[in-house]
Protein 1
Amino acid sequence: MFLINCPYCGERDQQEFKAGGEAHIERPKQPTELSDDEWAEYLFMRKNIKGVQFERWNHTHGCRKWFNMVRDTSNDEIKAIYKMGEKPPSQ
Amino acid sequence: MRNKYSVFSLIKNALSYHENWQRAWKDPAPKKEYDAVIVGGGGHGLATAYYLAKKHNMNNIAVVEKGWIGGGNTGRNTTIIRSNYLWDASAGLYDHALKIWEGLSQELNYNVMFSQRGVMNLAHNLQDVRDLKRRTHANRLNGIDAVYLSTEEVKKFCPIINTSPDIRYPVLGGTLQRRAGTARHDAVAWGYARGADAMGVDIIQNCEVKGIKRNGDSVEGIETTKGFIKTKKVGVVAAGHSSVIANMAGLRLPLESKPLQALVSEPVKPIIDTVVMSNAVHAYVSQSDKGELVIGAGTDDYVSYTQKGSHHIVEGTLNAILELYPIFSRMRMLRQWGGIVDICPDASPILSKTSIKGLYFNCGWGTGGFKATPGSGDLFAHTIANDEPHKLNAAFNLNRFVSGDLVDEHGAAAVAH
């Protein structure tokens, strides 16, 4: 449990948000050309990093907008928050 | 030579004020090379080592554990054992484990306090009723004892449940598996450790894996905090940290690691003599032999390795507990903790070979791995020894995420994923 600084609403309780998993997983451009292995990679395989991870969150009980977060999963410390479409900060 | 635990050994040791009990397992330094190394000294890992030695004559093996034996999820779960899963593959897997549980204390010469006090799953809405009835029928077709109970029968089996129709989520019925129950989680780890050690398995604690050495597509050994260990077979049973080990080998797994919480109350006299689980309101409760209520809460929905969870998750669970059991309203909670669970997209485990020869993974047990400990160890040992899965764990391979042949057990997994 922690506070999240929503880029649209400001600092709010994490309970207002929904975690959306790993960020920057690109939707396949040519879905019909994908092999089963590539589909598995896209749909199921995750980095699940212990340490600094890039992820998506949604302010479900607020503005309902999606945004990105850089968070250390070993101590839940939030390193950066940036809007969808923006480039991730370099580490 | 390992002394056998018996009433005579108890009397003999009582005479020396219990100061001369033999160590239950040794504390060896790692050898240079083993035939196989198990990464992770929890219940599943120790059971794997035990069955590798016992059934497959692999005695030159080691278990490496970064902390201490049973200090991870083995000592953090709510000790529930049941096998009432929906699909045939899961029924086979979990009931295999339940059958081993039934004779485990005798086999290990270690009292794991297995208690078949029954597990009741409650239905709180019409869809729950339909799902639980369907699951009961599926269980019975697979030879698993399961009965569907009406609201009155639920009340009769566990009188302290509030079955009044005017609560927020009224009890509309439930299922009961009488062979299900609980066991003492620490004793399971200690019993398997003692049994494995007696057959020559080296149990190496405070030894963290730092890297996996590969030669092309084969495993050559592991780098640890106690040096390099050469081995051709590595079985990873690292629960919430499976992805961390997988990343060392350049593999990705379909897992997300999340905190799952549990808590216990102050000890009270016997009040609930079974295990009651409720998926819909996310609350399950049983009573330990010490008298504490053992309560399981839910997972946080974000990836975290912090072994602590959010307060509002516990609050939600206790709200539900209080509505179902008004008698607990003045109970005080003693301890709360979290464990990191590795959750698969289909809420089923992975017991599988990988694309790297000699590297095996036993993971993805998510929120409910404890119940499967003996079966998981037995089948994983078979998989490692023969380099082929046993027919009971063949469906739980990594390739199912490629083929699409998933084993969707979200309904039976009890804690909503």
Protein 2
Amino acid sequence: MKKTLFDKIWDSHVVESIPNGPDILYIDKHLIHEVTSPQAFNELKERNIPVFRPDQIVATADHNTPTKDQHLPVKDLLSRKQLKELSQNCEENNITLYGLGHPYNGIVHVMAPELGITQPGMTIVCGDSHTSTHGAFGTIAFGIGTSQVTQVFASQCLLVEKPKKLRVNVNGKLKNGVLPKDVILYIISKLGTNSGTGYFCEYAGNVFEEMSMEGRMTVCNMSIEMGARGGLIAPDQTTIDYVEGREFAPKGAEFEKMKAHWETLKTDADAEFDQEYSFEAEDIEPMITYGTNPGMGIKLTGSIPVEGNKSDAKALAYMNFKPGETLLEKPINYIFIGSCTNSRIEDFRVAASYIKGKKKAENVNALIVPGSRQVAEQIKTEGLDKVFEEAGFTLRQPGCSACLAMNDDKIPEGEYCVSTSNRNFEGRQGPGSRTILASPLTAAATAISGKISDYTQTLN
Amino acid sequence: MEKFIKLTDTVVPLDAENVDTDQIIPARFLKATDKEGFGENLFRDWRFDKSGEPNEDFVLNQDKYSGSILLAGNNFGCGSSREHAAWAIKTYGFKAVVSSYFADIFKGNALNNGLLPVQVSPDFLHKLFAAVEKDSEEKVVIDLEEQKISIQSSGESESFDIDPYKKTCLINGYDDIDFLTSKLDAIKKFEKRSGNQAEPQQTLQTENI
């Protein structure tokens, strides 16, 4: 039978199928962080169950960490307690932890790929919905709840029903200034926030084939924002080149063996999908969101749809926007470049290339938060920190930061923030905050002009 | 896990679509390391104003509505994987959530906590909202064994789907951990033949399928 890439990876990880029930799916890598793991460790302790495969688990601290003075004790007592529990739990169970201050520390979906922990063909889970990011390598990667974290601790497996299969094709030539973030925001705006529910999504077409690994990660990261449990892209030479030589990637003969395997991970011609959509690259423009879910997106120069239901009206009231209105010329006081969606070196390069030689508008607070310590180091090596500093941007230490505002990095009530993160839910960036999702280029351009503007005319 | 067999109760109608887990339990309340107390902050920013006073317009603060069944609009529980959302709904006192669509991760989390997500047709959802709007004392019957949800006064009903394995777990109060830890021998055998990692498919497929 013809198989999709998803089928091939899934089927090779099924330990057993329960008749009329879910599959027992084997998990190759389990990534954990401080927020969704403590209750799982407690449950194990209460039931006297050991961690089954500690060497297949990697931990980081990212969600609840400060982005300033990371060398000092964490001020917030609850946060400090949560981080301490993570350290203790990892130590007691022999789990590798890249905690705050460790050279490998970072947002879980940034550090694992850059260390070569993420490899094609794997099954990867984490108690975080943006685990879909790792699908960029041709993996089955998805977010799980804490009960499932406990299950993986106890058995290195999950009981899961095999999802349906969806393919999204984008072919053609992207316009100047259109970034991977715009591509995924466009797809979600067309398909809606629950179009992917029950599915795993494969992205195909020359647009994804020509994307860098970092761009692919941005796309797969937001699969969950259309409801899909995960997204994936077939591994190719770009993937292999990215993985080769990384800290935990296979080396020498082992690498060659795995490479030969990775090259087979493709959807067979004529394999069937339960649902398929196709888009033209030429139709995509820089995107922004105007509402309170990521599907409420329009092109930067577009107008808010006039028609909508009660929930749409509630969203517009929250955002203080009107149907039919354009967002161009809206004054913006906050921009955030960071999060597991857009905090890799290419994101900062593209922002810096626009910012270089310019100054941020006086009204703007511009926050730059790298995804990992390694990205932070790279920013310095490439001198991008100077560009940001000279333009008046604030460069912080790595973490999830203002994407979900668990730490002090919050957008004040009523303020708009043009943000490279992944969710524009009510209060996501702080109580009463209003999030406008966009690419790093749009965020950088907004910081310079102090308002939403069509910068595409000024690009080289 | 608490068992769920049959529930007859009044309903709290939350007439909003795409209710995301950030609304159910905002991220700033995720610092706890146990499962207690999340119910106090359920729908925190809709339920209370800035000064911490109850917002009278919000349905959880309206005396006429009570009960252990939460009725909500399409695509309930989208967004983050935080199981704290299911804990918050459960510890507040709800035992079932009814909607025309649930986000995948929320649905799984709810089931793993004995909180039953009941997916109904948009038509039946509309009927439920109308029935509760007409009479806030209206009772709804959720029969898991029969996989049937009905409006008590009119007797109008609809059947709902649930994974048979999950149904057995809920009715008996079992959870997945009991099951998976009973399978460790099979899992070890799988590891042995697969080399414990993502290995070439060709050899695996013949053995697994």
Protein 3
Amino acid sequence: MVDLGVDVGSLKLKNPIMPASGTFSEELADVFDLDLIGAHVTKTITRGLRDGNPTPRVCEVSGSMLNSIGIPSKGVGYFIEKVVPFYQQYKTPLVVSISGNTADEFATLCSEVTVEGVDAIEVNISCPNIEEDGKAFAIRPSSTYDVMCKLRQATHLPLWAKLTPNTGETPEVARAAEEGGADALVVANTILAMAIDIRTRKPKLGNLMGGLSGPSLKPIALRMAYQCARATNIPVIGCGGISNAEDVLEFLIAGATAVQVGTATFIDPAIMPKIVTDLEALLASGGYSSVRDVIGSVIDEEQDPGVVFMEAAP
Amino acid sequence: MNAVVRSSALEPTNPVAFERDLPVISNEPVNGEYRLMILSAPVELLEQCHAGQFFHLLCPQIGGETPYLRRPMSIYGFYPEKGELHFLYKVTGEGTRALSHLKTGDTLNVLGPLGRGFTIEDDWDHLVLVARGVGLATLAPLALEAKRLGRKLTAICSARSADVLMSVEYFEALGARVITVTDTDGTSSIENLEAVIEQLVALDGVDAFYTCGSNRILRLLQKIGERHDIPGEIALEQQMACGLGMCHCCVRPFRKDGGQVNLRVCREGPVFDMQEAMPW
């Protein structure tokens, strides 16, 4: 028996496997017992109603996918009346993902979802900030720090900041989130990308550009998870292209305390509980008694910090 | 590590969607354009199926093809009594090209049945389906269900030419009346279709219309349905990722309560009320 339990700050998880926001919902209960995974993470909600982006909202690129869904949301009222009670039938912690157009709107929503039944709030600061010309809060350390300070004042619940790969300042943004009051970092979100149909010469997504996810994102997310674990003293939750137990182990070794599985669920809807079983077997075969023993066990002590935090390719 | 976990061990007690590797019984061309794939399926899966629902297929990475996401495909036929699940498809892209390489004895991973199928109300005695080309594949199991329920069915099949008319024999074998219209003999125009359907309404009475695939046919049936207060349903398509309702990729707009709402084709559909559907 391998102990798969991990602590993300004050939140205890029975195993380190949870869904990435937007790739999980109540409907997955049709496929497997939702109490088999470490946490439940909702699709991002906004305060008001949102329709989302024009279709097509998804397309395939070699071995990965692009999406531009645009955070359709039924609003905070529906969420508190319908979604939270659904998840209360499970023992697994509920993490609510939220987003806002401005720091103040974000903070108001953060306070509104601080309710019984919610165990942590994932703040999607990778979304565009209309006060910063549409640039995501988490592109710059200053806007990251400002929004995190406001969010911190809005709730007593653990705050997980979801970072974006669309920045050239990953360690600085990670530290800004920590200083602003984040209890953990989710690293990372999709990376801005594009695909064009060469016959019609039209972009393959209705929104022209979208986020790349799936296996081709994994090395980028892994690099960022490693940098964030080195740059801060708060737990890192790895996210990006994770499809099997080996991928999970790679993120844990890099310094992640837990991981989120996203696009892989679209290929195999029961992949998360399968990964839990496989991870236990993989750790047992490596002689580990606890998953905690592998976290941050990467052998990198010979390297100069300048290499660890480099932003340009060598 | 090769510990393969059977998803059945992880399933909730009463799953409504199954993820299974199903053996291929056959996978052969039925004419120049279409192929019929017959899978061997367990009875508990087939008993969950309804006409109009779909399966999300994990197309194999074989023959040099590397499809990644699953592909939604409507059920062509389901036969609990002989343990068979049928799909009719046209090779159009990477996913269907990969499917065409499957041979007897190979397996295909399927997820389903998914979505909401066709409604046949108890007092609907004469059902009329109108479709064109491969759209008829989606409507074929409706004929099967109509036969099982003892309802009268008229199938109006439209195609480019007589030799690609799909499913005529299939519908006739199920006791349906079949009316064919084609581009080559000039009978498939909307004007002629309208005359044919109006005659059906006048002579036999029609309780419900069913269609899929064609914008022009949708507009026509909406008009005729409204004129005579005849309900109808349409099966729609959209690019999908998850197939279960999680990702909201596959939405389409619908008229509802005086406004317009986005609904998920995979979850609220793929079959929708015909008057709420919006031409595209």
Protein 4
Amino acid sequence: MAIHEDVLVIGGGIAGTTAALAAAETGAQVRLVTHKKSTLRQASGLIDVLGYAPDVDGPVSDPFAAIESLPEGHPYQLLGETAIRGGLTVFDEAVGEAYEGSHTDTNALLTTSGGAIKPTSRYPTSTAAGLVSDDRAMLIVGFRSLTDFDGELVADHLAAAGVPFSVDGVEIEVPGSYRADSRVTRIANALDLNKDLDYEGRSLPAREAFAEVIKPHLGDADRVGLPAVLGDDHADAVRADLERHLGAAVFELPMGPPSYPGLRLEDILFDALDEAGVRLSDGNPAVGYEADGDAIDAVIVDQMNKEVPYSAEQVVLATGGLVGKGIDSDREGVREPVFDCHVPHPDDRYDWFVDDAFGEHPFAKFGVQIDEACKPLDADGVPEFSNLRAAGGVVGGVDRTAEKSKSGVSLATGYAAGTAAGEAI
Amino acid sequence: MTDTPHVLVIGGGSTGCGITRDLAMRGFEVTLVEKGNLTHGTTGRMHGLLHSGGRYAVSDQASATECIEENRVLRDIASHCVEMTGGLFVQRPEDDDEYFQKKLEGCRECGIPAEVLSAEEAREMEPYLATDIKRAIKVPDGAVDPFRLCVANAASAQEHGARIETHAEVIDVLVEDDQVVGIEVKHDSGPGKREHKTPGTTEKIYADYVVSATGAWAGQIGEMAGVDVEVRPSKGVMTIMNTRQVDTVVNRCKPKGDADIVVPHETTCILGTTDIEVEDPEDYPEEQWEVDHMIDTLSELVPMLKDARTIRSFWGVRPLYEPPGTGTDDPTDITRDFFLLDHEERDGLSGMTSIVGGKFTTYRMMAEKITDHVCEQFGIDAECRTADEPLPGSEDFSVLRDYMDEFGLRSPIGRRSVQRLGSRADEVLKTGEPNPVVCECEAVTRAEIQDAIEQSGSDLNAVRIRTRASMGNCQGAFCCQRMAHELYPKYDEETAYSAFDELFQERWKGERHALWGQQLSQAMLKYSLHSTTMNADHDAVRTGDAIDFTAFDGGTDAASKSGATGAAATDGGVSSPGTNGGDR
């Protein structure tokens, strides 16, 4: 018997999970198909709605107030504040106490692993004590064996930004013995399992041993920031134990891959899908479709070189952008590989980028164009299919990286696409 | 003037560094000035081929003979810079039989070991060669790391007392009564190692003799001295692949042509090249068709290149020269030979010689000739030892060791570190400190980065050429920031960030030419990591924006106590024992 759903969502990132949850909310039967691990492994875990806007100098404090300054055709302009709020509500319900920020529309400022201050809308509880608009004295701790992050340098850089609190930094030798070139996962595991480590001739549980190393540097600090490797499955317990031993608040600074806050978010979202009764097929890519006129009948999934049709009434495309391979390219052009939706791009490959590494890169805007119903449009501005909607990174037209609106656009489009797909049943 | 003549060498490429080493070893007092980093000009922008001489075996047998001689010398004195990959001249069905025969005979006439391989034998060596190739000639081509070689020459020169000044641009050649008496340079920082924020100065450096080893820039230096040196710079593109599709240098066995060589280099392959005359060695177009041409044409030899991933492309400028009046139209016909222009004989300006033309493989021989010439000027009779004395890193290092145990590094990282460092491995790697990996693609550890910083100051591009950090597949996506961290606390926060920005922009320069397919995905990840995760593009410290911290979320408690945009939280919303409010 062929697989048949009301709504089929392709992609397991923030947009895909939001779309699936929103569709399930309408009462539709939903299946989510994912290929590999989502790009959340590479994401900081912060949920940015809008950090910078054309008419605002410096970081945006109220993203909702800044929406009207965004260019025409921006997903926020197309879908409106309702979709953003809807997406945030789905997110807030899914993550519960694991995140903060839902108490206000105002952006929070957090410190990145690169030392820069960044505006964001929702932040993992593990990062909450690191808010920059909080005037408690801060100590930032780096591990000498961790090259991605330098606690003293970050502290100096924060001080240079004129933050409203005193900040010190220190680089510590992590307790325990590791290979000279061991990876950060070793530290996360040691803290997660809380196994005994050698510390100055004594044997101490890992969390206590870490706290002992940090303690002499604490000074007047009321809060201690560490790279976001404080445990994996037991992150809350790791943090609570460190806080208890140190007598100070402890927070994480999100880093690049492997990003524990990103991985933890992925787990939370998939638990939420499970709870909402969304069916899940993972490990196989969607490679094509079957259509009847302008309606998609089925999405073809490649299961170990066997092409299996997943038929559905409504389909949401949430396969990601260039990083997630929802958008692909070669020397000749840029395309959306599953449905071959139109992806606007300059003909000349040398017009895809600009010379400044942080300039306004056209490639950062590559993706399908959508209408107010989230439907991808062909070159003439007509929906590609009557029952296909797009959400998240696969949607183009705007540089979400520069705007710091990546997760927000995923939530808004995921919510709008998922809700519309569910309501169309 | 002291008793020891002081010679000033302009140009920190292979030739200039080679000359500096030779002069220093023969007892001269030597100063080398280079406007950028070592290898900044042409040396750092070549395909890394250690010629067997096979390429010139038909057209220019004198050069071919020099190449095979120097090929043998470099294997000996620079073993840690050379990988003897071997080379193939591959004939396709449409390529001329007569030329193939000429190539074979030419190699033999020049003393280049050459062996004919059938198509099957060639494909056994290199399985990804096209199935329809006809046959091949096997020669002892190799791969050489021009950065490491140049730095080793400079280090050896320093050991022999030479002064090396990088980031010192010549702004004037000092001439008195038809004699060159020195130069004036503008130090970007310093003098000394380049360190950010150290203010630059100008300095007049007087010398008894000046050697211009500035290649494609020789005309510009000549002009400052009031003499005409008509170099004919010719650009060529090189496209770097993400992996080694071949482990042997693969040449097309054709008379001449663009896009006819693939050189395996470290973890990559380099495709080359084009040959187009340009006006200005620093300002010429870098064009898409050149990159496409490399991929399309070389996939006739190695079909898998067609869809393989490239990580960047770069262009170099050959310092071609021909004596006035030769009038060759096509730059590919201009001789690859080198010329020693004694400006006293040629222009009536004493005290200066320019060296132009030539090839990387024969840099040492060119340096020897020029040093002989300088010796003659001073009536000094000193023997050249550069062909016999190994370069630093290549001394006495032949024992296979258990790197993993010895340096506490996982096997491939230890092996690659030791390959790069050669006999310096002990000195550099045994620090007794944690030695995490900084650049994963190229397996570069902190110890090696620190060693490079010690040598070159706060310039991360100088660290890059010494270590290969940020030169691999991810093009610095993960390690540019880590490399900047390594500068701190030796250099301050502001310097670490400036050095990061410089390196990041430099990496982008070449990566732009590889933006499609997987490398475009990689570039987007790099952009996202730095802009979304780290917010480097809107970093308030770097943009100079003042932030009103009170206008942002102060935590959950702040919301209830003083409104959404109120003052800062008192406990940040985290219940934690021992936290007693915002007083400090």
